[in-house]
Each structure stands twice: as structure tokens, then as C-alpha cells.
């Protein structure tokens, strides 16, 4: 009797538990699948009606029920890339400073502060953009620039800064986005640099390299793939961000014609219009959502693949 | 010292200064944001914020309905997220994580972890709002749960993987089934870690605005019935910040300060718990 019997006696919950846990894991996949399917079904009327035009036309007109999403799609990509360009060098600088140069009594509290700031809700960044950055930017940067260049309205610089000087434009939106992804990206970069075995660093110092040479010649190449992964993660966050952008991008549906022109992103368009939309308008917004999902999914999948190959 | 060495050392010094300046720029920007948040929010902070509902423009009022709504929706969301997240994290770490299916689950969970939250709002709108003809607190809670679950799953798996195999072997050797070993030994050993995962998830969803806009919509009156529209702090921030009224703008800042403080407190608590654990 019975060892086996005793063992089996204590078992009846095992399969149940396994099935329940399996079901929970499957639920996660089902949710992600559900998001895609629901966006596809909801967006299909608009996609099938406008076809390719949905992606290349900038006409977004709820009155005549004609929808082309090129404006928000381009706006999403442009604002995210701009934000990334602003945040990336600074994020790397912070991570390098905290892991390589700063003494422990500085780097530890700063690292914690950076990580805590990464948790501040994005709407707070958006509000700071709306109430603080936009007015200051309009009065101190945009207006003087437009005035200074007004005698030569056809020059490259005048075209670049063309726009209504109210501080709500692609550039300020990107700036706020950059500030928002900055703590997050620096925190992950820092983790990445810390994951490098100390021997690698010590060996480089041992052969007489200066700190600059150690970082650019050994440390950064060592985690190159992972760094691209972090960049993709940051990009993924910027692409899907709603609240930090909606307040300050100006919400016009055309292509942004200059750096200081108002624009829109997919997320801001959905946030602004979804509750008032009906019929084909709703469908067009869901189709935009599907586009956003596909873009972010591609970016995030790439990020995960690169990061996991780094064993981070 | 040769000229070359001097040049190399100089380059290194310059690089260090540039990195320091980058840190300084970022810190300045972030300190400015915190400063704005505190100076604009603290003035409006008083008892009425917690005892009165959101007002019409021009009349006095507070944020009671939105605070209650946020707490209720986040609470329900966290219960769901903890149950589903701990179970699926356990499945990944203890049962099926090495199968191809497990790899797929882990990968998609990571994607869901950083998926745009507004899309979750659209999904829940189509699943729960449109078919039942109405915005509701339940829908809001489900949207928040979808955002928190991947975080709990991820932390659970990470924490369980840190538990030594000796614990599992000891549990089995005493005749415990897998379920009993996991429940009484592994989960117990990982308790604080699991709690930290929950806190991180909570910190993430408590400031989420986008998914609530299309699910719970917001409500200017206190309504404890979750099948009705429900107010939430982030929605109040969104509506009040975009309004032209000064007193509403002020309330938006108070709400922002409250949410930020809650998130900071929860994050700090989570870190403190996690450190206490690793100190052993």
C-alpha cells in the first residue's frame, strides 16, 4: 500500500491547479488576440471602403464621412522619432554617468529617483506641457523666431518654424514625450550596463584604456543589441502614448508642414474623437487603432527579441 | 606624459563632463515637473477635496466621487490582476514555461506589458460597453485589470524563478503534491515579491487615463454602483485640465498631485519590501 496510494491521495488538486494556471496564461494570450480581432472587425468597414486611400489620404472629414489617416499616422511616427532623438543621447549619458562615473553616494539616490520618476503617470507630463511648456515656448521661442525670420518668409529656417505661435505643435509634443520616456529609458539602460560582468570592464582598464575608451570601445559594444532593444522599447512607449501628447500637439489632421506646426497622433485622435464618433467615423478610428497596434507590435517584438538575445 | 596620453585623458574628461551635463539637464527637467506639480497642486489641497463631489464651474467642490471611483475600479482591477497574474506567472515558472506554448505566452505577455493603453480601452469598449449599451465602472475595472495583469505575471515569474530548487525538492520529498508545494512553500517564500508585483501593477494603473475615457467615462456625482458610469481621478484631470475654467484647472492639479503622491508612495513601499527581502 502504499506509498503510491498516499502519493496519489494528495494529488487530486494537482491537475485542477494545472488547468486553472494554464487557463490563466491562455487568458493573457486571448486578450491580446481579442484586441487585434476586435480592432480588425471594428475597423473593417472603414478599411474596406477607403482601401489604400486610408493610408495615403490626409482628408479626415466627419461631415462628409471621408477618412484618410495619413496625417495621424505620420504624426505618430514623426513625433515619436523626434522624441527618441532628443531623449536617447541624454538617457545614455545618464546611464553612463550613474554606472561608470558617479560615486555610489550620488549614483544610488539618483538611480532611485530616476526609477521613481519613471512611474509618474503620463497625464501629469501632459498637463505640465499644456500649462507650463506651451505658453513659455510660444512667448520665448516661437514668437521671437517667427519675428526674426519674418523678413525672409521663403528661407528654409522660416519654413521650419512656421506655425501658429501658441506652443501646441509637433515639436513641443515631442519634447514632452522625450521628457516622459527619459526616466524609463535611462533606468533600463542603467540595468543593461550593470548587467555587464565587472571583469570585462576591469580587463579594459587593466590594459590601460581611459574611461572614455572603456565605455565606447568595450562596454557599449558589449551590450549593443540590448541597447537597440531599449531604444525600441522607448520608441514603443512614445508611439502609443496618449495623454502626454493629446494636450499639446494641436490636433489638426493634415501633415505637419513644419517643426512648429500643429499635428495629431493616432492616439490623440482616438482620445479626442472616439466618444463623439458614430458609424463610419468610429470604424475609421478603430482602423487607426489597428495601425497603431501593428506598428507598436512590430517595434516591441523587435525590442524583446533583441533584449532577450542579450540575456538581459 | 606623451601628448597622445594627454589627449586621451582629456577626451575622457570631456566625455565625463558631457555625461554629467546630460544627467543635470534631465534632472532639471524632471525637478521642474515635480516643482510645477507640487506648487500648483498644494494650494488647492484641503479637506473639501475629500468630502465634496466635483463641482460645476464657479462653485466650490472637491474630488470625492473621483477618488472613490478610482479606488473602487483599481481595487477590482487589482483583485482580478493578482488572481490571473499570479496563476499565469506560476504556470510560466513552475509548469509550462519551457514549452513552445510557454515561450509564446511569455513573449505576448511582454508585448501586452507595453502595448498602448488606449487600445485596451478600445477593446473593452467593444467588448463590454457597446454590447451592453452603457459605460460602466465594471468596464473601467476590466480595462485596468488588462493593464495590470501582465506586470503581475512578469514579476511573479521572475520572483518564482529566484526561489531555490531545494525548496521544491523539499516540498515534494515531504510528500506534498505540486499544488501543495507551490501553495504552501513556493508562494509563501515568494510572498513579499508577489506583493511587490501587485504594488507595481497598482502604481501603473492608478494614473491611467486613456483606457478609462471609453469605458467608465466619468461621473460628476458619487455613485457606488459599478454598473453605472463612474468617475476617476485621471478622467477628472483630463476634463478639468482641458476646460477654460480656472477653478477646474486648479482641481486638475490637485488630482494630479494626489495621483502622483499615491504612485510614489506605492512605488517606494514596493521597493522597500523588495529590498527587505533581498537583504536576507
Detailed description of the structure:
A two-stranded antiparallel sheet of chain A has the order 1-2. Helix content of chain A is 74%, strand content 1%. Chain A is an all-alpha fold. Chain A has a single domain, classed as MetI-like (MetI-like fold), CATH 1.10.3720. The longest helix of chain A has 38 residues. Chain A starts with a helix and ends with a helix. Chain A contains 14 helices and two strands. Chain B is built from twelve helices and no strands. Chain B starts with a helix and ends with a helix. Chain B has a single domain, classed as MetI-like (MetI-like fold, Orthogonal Bundle), CATH 1.10.3720.10. The chains are: A mainly alpha (312), B mainly alpha (280). The interface between A and B is large, with 92 and 92 residues.
Key attributes of the depicted protein:
heterodimer, A: 312 residues, mainly alpha, MetI-like fold, two-stranded antiparallel ribbon, flat, B: 280 residues, 12 helices, 0% strand
Number of DSSP E strands of chain A? 2
Estimate what percentage of residues of chain A fall within beta strands: under 5%
- Quaternary state, please? heterodimer
Helix content of chain A: over 70%
Structural class of the secondary structure composition of chain B? mainly alpha
Question: Summarize this, please?
Answer:
The complex is a heterodimer of chains A (about 300) and B (about 280). Chain A is mostly helical and about 300 residues long. Chain A is built from 14 helices and two strands.
Element layout with pairings:
The complex is a heterodimer of chains A (312) and B (280).
Chain A: H1 3-9, H2 13-50, H3 53-56, E1 60-61, E2 66-67, H4 70-101, H5 104-117, H6 122-148, H7 156-160, H8 170-194, H9 198-206, H10 211-222, H11 224-240, H12 243-246, H13 266-273, H14 280-309
Helix pairs in contact in A: 2-14, 4-8, 4-11, 4-13, 5-8, 6-8, 8-11, 9-10, 11-14, 13-14
Chain B: H1 3-42, H2 48-51, H3 64-95, H4 100-113, H5 117-129, H6 137-162, H7 165-173, H8 178-189, H9 191-205, H10 210-213, H11 233-241, H12 246-278
Helix pairs in contact in B: 1-12, 3-6, 3-9, 3-11, 4-6, 5-6, 6-9, 7-8, 9-12, 11-12
Amino acid at each position: 500500500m502504499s506509498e503510491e496510494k498516499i502519493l496519489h491521495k494528495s494529488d487530486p488538486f494537482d491537475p485542477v491547479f494545472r488547468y486553472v494556471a494554464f487557463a490563466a496564461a491562455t487568458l493573457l494570450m486571448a486578450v491580446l488576440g481579442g484586441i487585434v480581432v476586435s480592432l480588425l472587425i471594428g475597423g473593417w468597414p472603414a478599411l474596406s471602403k477607403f482601401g489604400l486611400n486610408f493610408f495615403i489620404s490626409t482628408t479626415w472629414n466627419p461631415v462628409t464621412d471621408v477618412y484618410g489617416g495619413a496625417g495621424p499616422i505620420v504624426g505618430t511616427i514623426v513625433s515619436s522619432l523626434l522624441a527618441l532623438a532628443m531623449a536617447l543621447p541624454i538617457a545614455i549619458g545618464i546611464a553612463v554617468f550613474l554606472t561608470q562615473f558617479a560615486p555610489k553616494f550620488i549614483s544610488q539616490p539618483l538611480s532611485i529617483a530616476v526609477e521613481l520618476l519613471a512611474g509618474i503617470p503620463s497625464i501629469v507630463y501632459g498637463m505640465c506641457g499644456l500649462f507650463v511648456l506651451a505658453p513659455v515656448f510660444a512667448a520665448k521661442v516661437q514668437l521671437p523666431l517667427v519675428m526674426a525670420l519674418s523678413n525672409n518668409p521663403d528661407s528654409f529656417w522660416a519654413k521650419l518654424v512656421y506655425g501658429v505661435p501658441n506652443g501646441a505643435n509637433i515639436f513641443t509634443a515631442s519634447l514632452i514625450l522625450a521628457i516622459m520616456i527619459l526616466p524609463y529609458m535611462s533606468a533600463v539602460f542603467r540595468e543593461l550596463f550593470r548587467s555587464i560582468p565587472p571583469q570585462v570592464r576591469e580587463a579594459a582598464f587593466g590594459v590601460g584604456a581611459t574611461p572614455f575608451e572603456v565605455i565606447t570601445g568595450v562596454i557599449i559594444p558589449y551590450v549593443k543589441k540590448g541597447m537597440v532593444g531599449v531604444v525600441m522599447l522607448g520608441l514603443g512607449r512614445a508611439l502609443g502614448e496618449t495623454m502626454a501628447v493629446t494636450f499639446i500637439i494641436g490636433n489638426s489632421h493634415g501633415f505637419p508642414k513644419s517643426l512648429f506646426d500643429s499635428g495629431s497622433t493616432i492616439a490623440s485622435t482616438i482620445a479626442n474623437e472616439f466618444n463623439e464618433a458614430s458609424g463610419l467615423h468610429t470604424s475609421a478610428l478603430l482602423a487607426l487603432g489597428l495601425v497603431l497596434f501593428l506598428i507598436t507590435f512590430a517595434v516591441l517584438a523587435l525590442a524583446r527579441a533583441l533584449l532577450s538575445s542579450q540575456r538581459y | 606624459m606623451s601628448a597622445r596620453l594627454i589627449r586621451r585623458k582629456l577626451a575622457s574628461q570631456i566625455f565625463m563632463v558631457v555625461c554629467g551635463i546630460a544627467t543635470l539637464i534631465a534632472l532639471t527637467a524632471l525637478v521642474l515637473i515635480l516643482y510645477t506639480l507640487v506648487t500648483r497642486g498644494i494650494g488647492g489641497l484641503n479637506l473639501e477635496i475629500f468630502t465634496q463631489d466635483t463641482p460645476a464651474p464657479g462653485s466650490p467642490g472637491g474630488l470625492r466621487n473621483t477618488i472613490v471611483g478610482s479606488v473602487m475600479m483599481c481595487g477590482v482591477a487589482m483583485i482580478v490582476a493578482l488572481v490571473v497574474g499570479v496563476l499565469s506567472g506560476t504556470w510560466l515558472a513552475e509548469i509550462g514555461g519551457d514549452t513552445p506554448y510557454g515561450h509564446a505566452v511569455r513573449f505576448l505577455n511582454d508585448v501586452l506589458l507595453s502595448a498602448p493603453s488606449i487600445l485596451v480601452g478600445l477593446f473593452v469598449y467593444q467588448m463590454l460597453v457597446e454590447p451592453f449599451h452603457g459605460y460602466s465602472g465594471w468596464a473601467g475595472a476590466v480595462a485596468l485589470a488588462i493593464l495590470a495583469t501582465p506586470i503581475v505575471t512578469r514579476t511573479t515569474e521572475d520572483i518564482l524563478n529566484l526561489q531555490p530548487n531545494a525548496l521544491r525538492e523539499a516540498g515534494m520529498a515531504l510528500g506534498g503534491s505540486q499544488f501543495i508545494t507551490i501553495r504552501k512553500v513556493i508562494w509563501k517564500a515568494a510572498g513579499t515579491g508577489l506583493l511587490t508585483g501587485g504594488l507595481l501593477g497598482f502604481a501603473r494603473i492608478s494614473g491611467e487615463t486613456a483606457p478609462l475615457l471609453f469605458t467608465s467615462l466619468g461621473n460628476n456625482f458619487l455613485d457606488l454602483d459599478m454598473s453605472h458610469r463612474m468617475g476617476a481621478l485621471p478622467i477628472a484631470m483630463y476634463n478639468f485640465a482641458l476646460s477654460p475654467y480656472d477653478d477646474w484647472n486648479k482641481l486638475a492639479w490637485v488630482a494630479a498631485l494626489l495621483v502622483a503622491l499615491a504612485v510614489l508612495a506605492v512605488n517606494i513601499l514596493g521597493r522597500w519590501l523588495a529590498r527587505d527581502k533581498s537583504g536576507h
